[in-house]
Amino acid sequence: xxxxxxxxxxxxxxxFLQSLICGILIGTLKANEIFAEIISTFLVLAxxxxxxxxxxxxxxxxxxxxxxxxxxxxxxxxxxVPLVNLPYLFSGAKINIAxxxxxxxxxxxMEELIFRSFLCRLIEQIxxxxxxxxxxxxxFGCLHLINIGKYPLVYVLLQVLYAFAIxxxxxxVFYKTKSILICIMIHVIVDFLGTFELExxxxxxxxxxxxxxxxxxxxxxLYRKTSRLTx
Length: 231
Known about the structure:
Blueprint: H1 4-27, H2 33-51, H3 55-60, H4 71-74, H5 97-126, H6 129-143, H7 153-177, H8 181-194, H9 202-230
Helix pairs in contact: 1-2, 1-5, 2-5, 5-6, 5-7, 5-8, 6-7, 7-9
């Protein structure tokens, strides 16, 4: 079994390198923007999946597993999360749809692998699953502090809280279903809708943060309750 620490560090480095590779392809090699996005995305994902290519490793990190009866009924709250960014779809922003789709897929896959799969398994080995859920979500939330300067502080703080909350919900789903596939799907949709943003809408961000916070509380205490019942 590959060590989660090594996977977490390497994947995080590759995650940030993707935009650099894409920039080099466009700026130095004069590659088409879409072509550069595809190549850089494929290269990074290929390396990551090569590292976890064995079936038992894929299962351990929730890549090829789906174990939950009546999943959509049991986890319907997750499908409220993409509604957070739905107002941006009507903002009038002109975007490159193909580029937005590729970018959203890349971010959704990589962030779920890093923060919900590799990092949770790493913390779990050191401590326990409850701490893995909380700590991985805190780190995921704090990652959004890199947007300071790009957005007003109030929006960045809402992003941090939003990411922390949805991180808890996704981490619980990962542990309950032993899969990150649905988390990736929801994440991709959220990011894709977010690409239509011309400028942040305060009311949308506040409502989104409330929805995600409710999901976090619901899933976390449900997880604690079911864990006690099964222990």
